[in-house]
Amino acid sequence: MSPFFKPLRLGILKRSFTLLAAIASTTLAIDGRADLASDSLLRTPNLNPFAVLAYTPSTESAHLVRAKTIEVALSHNIANNFVISNADNEMLRLDGESSTSDFILRYGLRQNLELSIALSYASHSGGRLDGFISKWHKAFGLPNAGREYVNDNEINYQWAVDSENRVSIQSSASGIGDTIVGIGFNLHSSPGQRITLRSALSLPTGDAQVLLGSGTKALSTFLTASKSMDFLPYSSALRLGIGTTLSHRSTKVNVRRRRAAASAYAGLVFKVAEKLWLKTRLEYSQGRYKSSIPELNQAHTRMVFGGTIVLKTNRVIDFAIAEDLSVGHSPDVSFHARLANHF
């Protein structure tokens, strides 16, 4: 990340957290009266290939699927990665595009208990967005982070220590990603308020050697909350979550990962029209690796913005953009689309 651009992003991050904290302090004491039709969070997985290798979980909602109801969701996510970083005896190169197509099935076993499974097909390639992003940076006077010195639409994912490659991907790769099995248990439910405990087990069905999976089992546990409120002229809600991820050491790839890493999020949802909700969220994730490279060992934060469009009573479309605010652990920008249906 450019040294001139980093202070700007950190300034945006501080102001964003200050705003969310102020809203939380004034609204958590108010009885929620807004009955939001859309309870789901925007699901925007971190598609940095090393975030995939370390299993960085996606955020989850405090709202469960209703009892005896099935939710089927199809989503597609695409991210452009570009990082060049050197520190001590290590070197990191990320230049390429990563994407996933996900199938997620949720079932309300009881009113306070939900089961889920997520299947993924992942790919890494040179992609097609490099030229567009460079022109966007030039048009708005933004730093280009050295993109102009490499060829567009080529893939180079590489991490070397003492000139020895720990990971090196220089051609397209695709295949099945890791499988996620989850459970959600509602701890508290009252009008406008939810508190839910969620756990998910990641099973290493993806090939870690080409960065399609983590290569090991991992368990994440999150405490999530939702509070309806009145905000400006709109029905709205505050969403919060905090949790940790525990993982085994992988024998597939020679990298040093932290066995435990924390994550958190804070977000807002606004109903701006009968069939349209706008949603924004800040995500924090602790660094996953023991490394001298900041993009691997430091915590990172993302801003997610998007919305949900209601097609039918039981069918919605999500759209979202996620932007990295701290260091290059997550992609500069990623795009998300999801179709969900209840049966």
Name the strands of the widest sheet in spatial order.
1-2-3-7-8-9-10-11-12-13-14-15
Q: Globular, elongated, flat, extended or rod-shaped: what is the shape?
A: globular
Mean pLDDT: 84
CATH topological fold name: Porin
Q: H/E element string?
A: HHEEEHEEEEEEEEEHEEE
Based on DSSP secondary structure assignment, what is the total number of beta strands?
15
Classify the helix fraction into a percent range. 10-25%
Integer-rounded radius of gyration = 20 Å
| Top-tier CATH class | Mainly Beta
Q: In total, how many domains does the architecture comprise?
A: 1
CATH architecture: Beta Barrel
CATH homologous superfamily grouping = monomeric porin ompg
State the separation between the terminal residues, measured CA to CA: 45 Å
Sheet with most strands: 12 strands, antiparallel, barrel
Please state roughly what percent of the residues sit in beta strands, choosing from under 5%, 5-15%, 15-25%, 25-35%, 35-45% or over 45%: over 45%
Query: How many helix segments?
Result: 4
Low-confidence segments: 1-10, 16-37
Structural class: mainly beta
In short:
The protein is mainly beta. 12% of the residues lie in helices and 51% in strands. Strands 1-2-3-7-8-9-10-11-12-13-14-15 form a twelve-stranded antiparallel barrel.
Question: Can you tell me about this structure?
Answer:
With 343 residues, the chain is mainly beta. It has one domain: Beta Barrel (Porin). The protein is built from four helices and 15 strands. A twelve-stranded antiparallel beta barrel has the order 1-2-3-7-8-9-10-11-12-13-14-15. Strand 11 and strand 12 (276-285) form a beta hairpin. The radius of gyration is 20 Å and the shape is globular. The chain starts with a helix and ends with a strand.
